[in-house]
Amino acid sequence: MSGAGAPAITIEGGADLKVAVVAAQWHTQVMDGLVSGAEKALAEIGAAHDLFRVPGSFELPVAAKALAAGYDAVVALGVVIRGGTPHFEYVCAAATDGLNRVAIDTGVPVGFGLLTCDTEEQALDRAGLPGSREDKGREAVEAAVATALVL
Ligand code: DLZ
């Protein structure tokens, strides 16, 4: 984990878990980094995983809900970048509230790998790419798997 006050997460176990990664497709370069970071983390843990793509971040919750029925954890990845209209707020709120609802309603942990940024530079800095300061795809996997291991 990264950022002020972030814990160092140690994953012990998880190789017997089945994890669904659901990823939006807007902002290709950032998404490539997030997906790659998530897949690398899952490979290190040894968890079986499948990748599903949806068009945009708005579609993440409905896919996450369907996938929660067949997996031990879901990792949702997306990036929303502020534009000149209120659309940003609506997509961010719908995706965030929706993913939270999926986790609470189904009891299946949902890793929150949704970047909500003012600029593409901010998103690239968090995408786990060469030169990025943070790897939010990996962090979302670690949070979802660590939580699944508690349940
Ligand atoms: C429409 C839209 C816009 C303007 N921006 C983004 C974005 O930055 N990131 C993202 O993941 N999706 C965006 N979308 C698409 C919506 O999430 C959604 O796919 C469409 O409104 C169709 O339902």
UniProtKB/TrEMBL annotation:
Its EC number is 2.5.1.78. 5-amino-6-(D-ribitylamino)uracil binds at W26, S57, F58, E59, V79, V80, I81, F112. It comes from the Bacteria. Pathway: Cofactor biosynthesis; riboflavin biosynthesis; riboflavin from 2-hydroxy-3-oxobutyl phosphate and 5-amino-6-(D-ribitylamino)uracil: step 1/2. Gene3D superfamilies: Lumazine/riboflavin synthase (3.40.50.960). The keyword RNA-binding does not apply. (2S)-2-hydroxy-3-oxobutyl phosphate binds at G84, T85, R126. The keyword Transferase applies. It is an enzyme of class 2 (transferase). It catalyses: (2S)-2-hydroxy-3-oxobutyl phosphate + 5-amino-6-(D-ribitylamino)uracil = 6,7-dimethyl-8-(1-D-ribityl)lumazine + phosphate + 2 H2O + H(+). The active site is at H87 (proton donor). CDD domains: Lumazine_synthase-I. Keywords: Riboflavin biosynthesis, Transferase. HAMAP family: Lumazine_synth (MF_00178). Catalyzes the formation of 6,7-dimethyl-8-ribityllumazine by condensation of 5-amino-6-(D-ribitylamino)uracil with 3,4-dihydroxy-2-butanone 4-phosphate. This is the penultimate step in the biosynthesis of riboflavin. Belongs to the DMRL synthase family. This is 6,7-dimethyl-8-ribityllumazine synthase. It comes from Catenulispora yoronensis. The gene is ribH.
